[in-house]
Design brief:
This protein is α/β, with parallel strands linked by helices. It has 2 domains: about 1-40, no CATH class; about 40-195, Rossmann fold. The protein is about 30% helix and about 15% strand. The strands form 2 sheets. A 4-stranded parallel sheet has the order 1-6-5-2, sandwiched between helices. A two-stranded antiparallel sheet has the order 3-4. The longest helix has 12 residues, at about 55-65. The chain is globular. Belongs to the ComF/GntX family. This is Competence protein. InterPro entries: ComF/GntX_DNA_util-trans (IPR051910), PRTase-like (IPR029057), PRTase_dom (IPR000836).
């Protein structure tokens, strides 16, 4: 049975396969699932962090986020800039709920990107003021959708990269990824400053 597969074996959507010289010359197998379904599988090279969460990072995050020391956004600007300077995907920071942003006075994730002179756009808005840090793993996984698209914003069939300060269970990034993929993104990858 050598018939080419034209529809995704998981979601039955038409596969948008692009035949390139690279595919022809390297003798790759033709795709059997669509890009959207493939993006839902966790690849260790897709989720990346610069630092691990340790006591020093705990102190840094407390000072930066909760004591509102915005100058600390510059601490890791060289490392963030080095990682993102050649990035071709559209960078989207994980947003804060508007009420939380008023309370904290700034968006800590956006400030990290600003300090590193990294351009970004915001397509998402947070739907709840609840923080994930107060929940256990099971509660985080079962939470209602955390984000929605900002009214009037369009997601294009392009590559996107979600940026957050810390990843623990990955629930926040997964919720944001799902919203973007469902809205038409070609691919969504994630990157965090810290892995918890």
């Amino acid at each position: 049975m050598n018939k080419d597969i034209t529809h995704c074996l998981l979601c039955a959507q038409r596969i948008q396969a692009v035949i390139s010289w690279r595919i022809l010359l390297t003798k790759q197998f033709p795709p059997t699932i669509c890009d959207r379904c493939m993006a839902q599988f966790e690849d260790s090279s897709c989720a990346f962090a610069i630092y691990k969460y340790n006591e020093a990072m705990k102190v840094y995050l407390h000072q930066y986020k909760f004591l509102q020391d915005i100058a600390l956004a510059k601490v890791f600007r060289q490392q963030i800039h080095a990682h993102f300077r050649k990035e071709r995907a559209i960078i989207i920071p994980i947003p804060m709920h508007p009420l939380k942003q008023i309370e904290r006075t700034f968006s800590h994730v956006e400030e990290l990107l600003k300090a590193a002179c990294i351009p970004y756009i915001q397509l998402l808005e947070k739907t709840t003021t609840e923080t994930q840090s107060t929940k256990n793993r099971e509660q985080r996984i079962q939470v209602a959708p955390l984000f929605r698209l900002i009214a009037g914003r369009q997601v294009e069939y392009q590559d996107y990269l979600l940026f957050d300060d810390i990843k623990t269970t990955g629930t926040t990034l997964q919720h944001a990824t799902t919203i973007l993929l469902d809205a038409g993104a070609k691919n969504v990858r994630t990157f965090t400053l810290i892995s918890g």
